[in-house]
Amino acid sequence: MSDLTTLRLMTYNVRGLRDDARAVAAVVAAQSPDVLAVQEPPRGPLGRRRLARLARRTGLVPVVSGRGARTTALLVAPGLPVADARAVRLPWRPGRTRRGASLAEVAGLRVLVVHLGLDARERARHLELLLARPELAAPGTTGTGPTAPGTTAPRTVAAGAEAGAGGAAGGRRVPLVVLGDLNELPSGPSWRRLGERLVDAAVAAGGGIPTFPAARPRKRIDAVLVEPPVEPARAEPAAPADPAGTGGDAPAPVPARGPRFLRVARARRPRDTPAVPAGGGVAGTGGASGGTGEGGGAVDTPAAAGAAAPTGVRVVGSWVPGGPLVARASDHRPVVVDLLVAAPREGAPAGRRGGAA
Fold first, then answer.
1. What pLDDT digit, counting tens, does each position of 80-93 carry?
2. Whether the Cβ atoms of residue 169 and residue 216 lie closer than 8 Å to each other
3. Exposed site from 78, 102, 226, 323, fewest CB < 10 Å?
């Protein structure tokens, strides 16, 4: 048995919190994500402390940060069931940025956070290494990728849950979601490679607008991609790049949601409550296509996107917040996606937005 849970996912390149850390926190808090995928988290001697401060200001908990995660981090809402949180080191060459990825199973989703490089060959190499990992192997295939040092074999959120993305338990698969800064347009090879398996959530929701640079975005290089089959909900219009009524310096308003199909809604946790995982939570690991972009070119989305969704994944909405505050916070605009997910019934409630039997 499973619960239908609305999860809000957000991906955000915060540029090391070098521009305006308080503005970044305000942008995130205004969207109230359940899962926050961070690219370019603060690093250095005080990096983890600064990321922890961002987590407190936004009511989230870091589950992957630092060390092997390098250019990524993963934060989640307290109380979400999390398993197999790990940092993944990626190979590098002198003169280039040391990159990594963040990986965890969160509330019925296999979440992968990426920050691909500026060099096309490096992007392709890193993407293949990640997609070849056993826990990320496509259904019907066997992953042969390397395992990050110090990590263990995948475990499940609760008894009866699936152990890997390609496996099955009780007839349920754990769908993969990739969030991150891809550093290329949707017409690029990395988007196409991901599009062989994943659906661009923004396009599935009827949107897909530029995210970079934040002040005057011209390129769409940030994305949330979901493993099909995905059942797109009634399309919501994406939030305008600079919504009216922002008050000149207020975060962009959160678009109204589509039908929730939920019977129980839990109150949002007050923002001044300390960010402590429910029941002890999950400790940090000690460590990180569719559509058209500038210059034309489209990536085909799989035909299965409109099919019934045995895993329960449904794109409820997608938008890109804008406005003066977003422009001041970082050089990227975030991407926010609401998904309706069939989460495991056993264990902790799967999200701040409630669930139904």
1. 999 999 999 999 88
2. no
3. 78
What CATH number should be reported for the domain whose range is 2-356? 3.60.10.10
DSSP run (H or E) holding 58: helix 47-58
Q: Is 196 left (phi over 0), alpha (psi -120 to 50) or beta?
A: alpha
CB 31 within 8 A of CB 8: yes
- Whole-angstrom Cα distance, residue 188 to residue 194? 10
pLDDT digits (tens, 9 = 90+) for 217-257: 999 999 999 987 655 555 444 444 444 334 445 455 455 44
Q: What is the pLDDT of residues 192-219, one digit of tens each?
A: 999 999 999 999 888 789 999 999 999 9
Joined together, the tokens standing for residue 212 give 């970079």
- Of the two residues 58 and 205, the one the predictor is more confident about is 58
DSSP for 296-317 reads: --EEPPPGGGGS--TT--EEEE
% of the chain beyond a pLDDT of 90:
49
Helices (H), 100-220: 120-131, 189-195, 201-204
Query: Residue 295 corresponds to which tokens in the numbers above?
Result: 């210059």
Give me the helix-helix angle, 47-58 and 21-31, nearest 10°: 40
Residue 46: the pLDDT is 86
| CA-based R_g, the chain, Å | 18
Give the Cβ contact number of residue 224 at 10 Å. Answer: 26
Long-range contacts of residues 24-28, Cβ cutoff 8 Å, at least 24 apart: 24/54, 24/329, 24/330, 25/54, 25/57, 25/58, 26/251, 26/325, 26/329, 27/251, 27/321, 27/325, 27/326, 27/329, 27/334, 28/54, 28/58, 28/60, 28/334
Q: What are the beta bridge partners of residue 9?
A: 35, 337
- Please give the pLDDT value at position 292: 32
Tell me the C-alpha distance between 136 and 175, whole Å. 9
In this structure, the chain runs to a length of 357
> Could you give the CA distance from residue 213 to residue 22 in angstroms, rounded to a whole number?
19
